[in-house]
Amino acid sequence: MTVQAAQPDAGSATKLALPASMSIREAVNTRELILAALQESGAILLDLPEDAQVDLSFIQIIEASRRHALSQGGSVALAQPARGSLLSTLERAGLLTEMAAEDQLFWLHRKEAA
Amino acid sequence: MTSLDPIQVFRTEAAELFEQIESGLLDLLNDLSDQDTIDAVFRGLHTLKGSGAMFGFEALAAFTHHCETAFDRVRKGQVPATDELVAAVLDAQDHMKALVSTPQGDHEDASNRLLAALHAAVGGAATTGHVVTPPLPQASAQAAAPASAPAKGQAFHIAFRLPANAMINGTNPLGLLDELRELGECTVKADLSTIPGLGSLEPTDLYIGWSVDLVTEQGRDAIDDVFIFVMDDMDIKVTEVAPVEAKAAEAAPAAKAASPAPEATLQKAEPAKAPGNEPKHGGKQAENVRVPAERLDELMDRVGELVIAQSRLSQLAGSSADLHLRAVSEDVERLSGELRDTMMVLRMVPVGSLFGRFRRLVHDLARETGKVIELETEGETTEVDKTVIERLADPLVHLVRNSIDHGLEPPDERVAAGKDKTGRVILSARQSGGEVIITIKDDGRGINRDRVRAKAESSGLIQPGQMLTDQELLQLIFQPGFSTAAQVTNLSGRGVGMDVVKKTVEALRGVIDVRSENGRGSEISLRIPLTLAIIDGLLVRVGAGSYVIPLSAVEECLELSLEDDLRSRGRSFISLRDNLVPFLRLRELFETGTPPDRYQKMVVISTGDARVGLVVDQIIGDHQTVIKSMSKLHHDVVTFSGATILGDGGVALILDVTHLVAVGQYQEAHLRAAG
């Protein structure tokens, strides 16, 4: 896991490359990793591998990161819109139902009607 | 921030599941048609499989799957529950434990052998197969797709929140949602409002709740079935919403709303949550906290040191004229006493946790010996210090084995003796004062006293024809190497064990009583102090030394005048409300070499029905006594059970009440015998 320089289009955000597996087994580490990155740099860009496998614990960690960043005046964003396992987990968990605009922007990178 | 190792958490949870499964299986042997028990065993196996798979114990999950499948078929009435099936699953469960403790080991042969037995037990029906992982849903399609036609059935609104530890315990919330979707037209909405900020997040806890609108033809029972494994621990509200057709028609727009269509959702966008407004973890608060036992021991040690420091403070304050210091000292004394009491409660564990394991033992022994045995347990809620529980486990195994192997007769012998063919073993616990009494009772043939005496004489433990009280004779069975079993079996009869039982019980400052009636059975009682750490004591002075008598054993205190003392010399009995009570002059017993005080005191102590008076020079008062073990050099000192540190830094020995009462009773018996 490495903390990389921010993408040009992500402003001053620090890019955080996440591992391919982020299930409950890795939840403690994932939390620590993101928390450390947020403390080091208030704005982070999460880079998930295309084949990343996630479960609900990861969704919760990301939501908690958003709350944390908001309360600290920082920001969290996904480098790519949710896809694969992440998108499937969001759907199965009912997070896409009546999804708020800012959540659509965050998870799906959608700014207007599909 | 520290978090428990998930693998260790799983192992702990698995141990509890094993107990639950085993208990269910043994219950099932009493009534093979008990549907609730069958369901409970199935649930246990299911949870074990799911948790195992989640935490990477693939071999466990794969193996458990076969047992689960077998019980699923029983549950559905496809095959009957039989003794053979229960026995096969019990054996399989032992193997599962090995798969949990040593997942990397070579278990293949054992797995195949046990699965063959399981297969045979369910009549060769399909227990084979592969681990079934929850089907990945067509959820996205179902959840997001608008209903093309009005759904038929009942409409329900389901709001639920699983316990915080659901995920780490192996429950897959997404699997539950998938199952709900399989019931019909379904709209799932997550409630994320209770997710805290990252700093407060317990990453393995579940914070999300759900509300689900479901139209199904399968009725309320189908919904309950989805949650059958977690129903007891979760918050759930299921509401039937509207009549069938009307509601079904409404389901279409509801399903449309499920699609993440920005046009629709932007209108309903909620305002962003205020910065720093991190909601508390909602839902039902956890009612129990799992704490490693070592931490309790550490805390106990600290409380012990606090009590000693408080004792020093009390002594300083007592010799000071400073009223403020005295007030503070009294406050600290009260608080440390309360802390000690709270700590004691924390360490207490119901003895039922110990008794539970004997059901399996008795079951196995019944199979091995061919005896018909019924185990009864009483007083499972009696609480004992956890250390006592841990140390008593092995001695009780020996005693129960002995009862079954030596005590209970084979069925034909019992019938010939006019008894029921089923032998009974009763395991009971009760509290009596500062002791817990654990009794193992059987209705077998009883201890053959003649054989005990003959064996003791032949092995030189006693002289031929030596006079012994009945209790002394029966206590011989606890001598090292003593066995009256004509035949050595796997269970007992090797003479190894009963002496270890006695040593273990004595190390716990306990005592063993034996009662036995020829042809009617035996009863062995272990009387153990409730706690091994801190006790309320009565501090006394004998000569120049201080001693502590456990307050729980003290019945009353009397004054023994010099005249009464002189009058009773040579007899050492005092009449107490028309009862003669023997007493011991501790000054003489301890050979202090000091003259007695003018007004000596007598502390009457008791264990069970036996009483004895202890003559001391002075009663100083009550004393919170932190028990320190005697050194190895003093392990053979029988009059004292330990030592404690006093407020002035001095040491007081703690009297072994059981031993002193026994000495007093022995003295009484011999004086009576001498006329």
Automatic annotation (TrEMBL), chain A:
Q: Name the source's superkingdom.
A: Bacteria
Please give the Pfam families that the UniProt record associates with this protein: STAS_2 (PF13466)
Q: What species is this protein from?
A: Xaviernesmea rhizosphaerae
Write down what this protein is called.
STAS domain-containing protein
Chain ranges of the STAS domain: 16-114
TrEMBL record, chain B:
Q: Which GO terms describe its molecular function?
A: ATP binding; phosphorelay sensor kinase activity
Instruction: Return any one Pfam family short name.
Output: CheW
Q: GO CC: one term?
A: cytoplasm
SMART domains to which the protein is assigned, alphabetical = CheW, H-kinase_dim, HATPase_c, HPT
PROSITE patterns, per this entry? CHEW, HIS_KIN, HPT
Please verify whether the record's keywords include Nucleotide-binding.
yes
Protein's job: Involved in the transmission of sensory signals from the chemoreceptors to the flagellar motors. CheA is autophosphorylated; it can transfer its phosphate group to either CheB or CheY.
- Enzyme Commission (EC) number: 2.7.13.3
Where does the signal sequence lie?
none
At the top of the EC hierarchy, this enzyme's class is transferase
Example of a GO biological process term: chemotaxis
Q: Where is the HPt domain?
A: 1-103
Task: Name the CDD domains for this protein.
Answer: CheA_reg, HATPase_CheA-like, HPT
List the biased-composition ranges (Low complexity): 251-264
Name the segments for region: Disordered: 251-288
Q: Where is the CheW-like domain?
A: 534-666
For this protein, what reaction is catalysed? ATP + protein L-histidine = ADP + protein N-phospho-L-histidine
**Protein known as:** Chemotaxis protein CheA
Domain (Histidine kinase) ranges: 284-532
The source organism is Xaviernesmea rhizosphaerae
Question: Which of the residues bear the PTM Phosphohistidine?
Answer: H46
Ranges in a coiled coil: none
Keywords associated with the record? ATP-binding, Chemotaxis, Kinase, Nucleotide-binding, Phosphoprotein, Transferase, Two-component regulatory system
